[in-house]
Amino acid sequence: MANHALFRPQMTGPQPVAGEKIKRQDSPLLNASDGVFADRVFAWAILACAVIVLAILVLIVWQLVSRSQLSWHAFGWKFFWGQDWDPVNDHYGALPFVYGTLVSSLLALIIAIPLAVGVGVFTTEMCPRWLRGPLSFTTELLAAIPSVIYGLWAIFVLVPILRSYVQPFLAKTLGWTGLFEGPPYGIGMLAAGIILAIMIIPIISSITREVLAVVPQHQREAALALGATRWEMIRIGVLRNARAGIVGGIILGLGRALGETMAVTMVIGNRPEIAKSLFAPGYTMASVLANEFSEAAGDLYLSALIEIGLALFLVTIIVNALARFLVWSVTRGQPARARA
Amino acid sequence: MGVGIRVENLNAWYGKTQALQDINLNVQANHATALIGPSGCGKSTFIRCLNRMHETTPEARVEGKVKIGEHDAYDGTSATKLRRRIGMVFQKPNPFPTMSIYENVAAGLKLNGYHDRKHLDEVVEKSLVSSALWEEVKDSIHKKSGASLSGGQQQRLCIARALAVEPEVLLMDEPCSALDPISTGKIEELIFELKAQYTIVIVTHNMQQAARVAEYTGFFLLGRLIEYGKTEKIFTNPSDKRTEDYITGRFG
């Protein structure tokens, strides 16, 4: 389009300034060492770090495998399916412990995931600004409490509440499912699951909060401009984009739940039996190791305990691998930046 | 069909900073209106006031009257309802990366409660056709994610997403500033075709673009609407000295 109404102002660029001439000098950095040697040392040093980590892992596996040989030769695969744990007659089966570990961790996840994700969403999306700092600080403080303190708290506070209020209520309303029957001891699988849930909430919620915070603002605006309500915006513009990261946080929480020893040992009841009811006492792999290792008399007993250690190691690896596969399958085909 | 927009005495603030001062403007239905001006002059804030996106910014505030057709935007009813009648395309293409192309386009309809598969199929195809993307993606609308497209395709996908709910007004906030010249050309052609059916308000830094696509142009400066009128007049014979200075490149 023509602009006839206008004239161009005269504009001149920068002009040379008269004065002292600048002398050219060699850069002092040209004489410095080129750092090739230091670079090489650094490369070897970090390689050593990486190798050491791998070596430790291999050593642990080797130790577990070699020291559980006795039990392996005595029971074979039946060790993992056997339900008897009888040190008196030297007969060992690990299924109750595997079951206890998996069920208590699963229970913990079922309770913790909605709570933790809810806390994460609230702190990033809805919380007034002044409350954000204190709230995330206190949630993270939960992670800093030693697990024996959790155990004590569970024994003195949680268990009595479960026994006198929660379990009778559950038995009355959901008793027909078979999951909530039998005498309400307080102590048992349910207590272990709840205490584990409280312990993993800070992990999952802090990771959720962090992945939600890096979801780009334009995703929220895209959803809002389409006429999304706040909840719909959070669902399609925020949670969907962050789900891989949230699953990652859940995996970390699960890892903690599987290996947690002290608090669980204090409230699970320590009875090596498989019961359908969540009120019944149970046992986990980590707890049996903590309880019985120091008093294991006899080589086969010790060897069986070490094989349980190996089983715990394997279960953790399998669960982690499954979870990683899950993350991979939801993020497949997405560009890296969407992976929060 | 598009509807006109009437803006009366619009003021907007970010906290204590006033971003818009007494804007009065009538946008013609089924035409493209371009808003130009230097960075920070309030033109983006202005179109964000039209669909009430401005108030989603913390501490942002609006006063004044905005009428979208016969409907008063700030009459106390929900912003959600209003936004469903107004499509918006942003500066940076922002398809939902975890959704397929199809799901991206259908997102607005699903929010509105349409779940009938056949109906969705039809609307998705129609929207992709009108955003001139259909031919390029028709074989992979379910397979490819919205983020796997090129920048220009992503922006057309965002236009399709906005069109799918059949809005009365289409707001575009510098839709081409992140795109190369060829993609820009495609989007401009698209705007040209779309304005037969939609009222389009486009913010742009590119004055040639304003001249190419819009019948009306408004010039913003420091939160005020300095001049508004036919594009031809603004660019050839502006009545305000500041407009003249800006379009000749003397500042901004």
In short:
Chain A is an all-alpha fold.
Describe this structure in words.
By secondary structure, chain A is an all-alpha fold. Chain A folds into two domains: 18-67; 72-331, MetI-like fold (Orthogonal Bundle), CATH 1.10.3720. Chain A is 68% helix and 1% strand. Chain A contains twelve helices and two strands; from the N terminus they run αααββααααααααα. A two-stranded antiparallel ribbon of chain A has the order 1-2. The longest helix of chain A is centred in the last third of the chain and has 33 residues, at 299-331. Chain B is α/β, with parallel strands linked by helices and 252 residues long. Chain B is built from ten helices and ten strands. In chain B, the strands form two sheets. In chain B, strands 6-7-8-3-9-10 form a six-stranded mixed β-sheet, sandwiched between helices. A four-stranded antiparallel β-sheet of chain B has the order 2-1-4-5, covered by helices on one side. In chain B, β1 and β2 form a beta hairpin. The longest helix of chain B is centred in the middle third of the chain and has 14 residues, at 117-130. Chain B is globular. The chains are: A mainly alpha (340), B alpha/beta (252). Chain A binds chain B through residues 1-6, 8-9, 129, 216, 218-229, 232, 236-237, 240-241, 243, 333-335, 337-338, and chain B through 51, 53, 56, 58, 80-84, 86-88, 90, 92, 94-99, 107-108, 111-112, 144-145, 147-148, 158, 161-162, 165, 211, 232, 235-238, 244, 247-248, 250.
What is the first-to-last residue Cα distance of chain A?
Answer: 46 Å
- Report the CATH topology name of the largest domain in chain A: MetI-like fold
Number of helical segments of chain B? 10
CATH superfamily of chain B: P-loop containing nucleotide triphosphate hydrolases
Helical coverage of chain B, percent range = 25-40%
Largest Cβ-defined interface: A-B, 33 and 42 residues
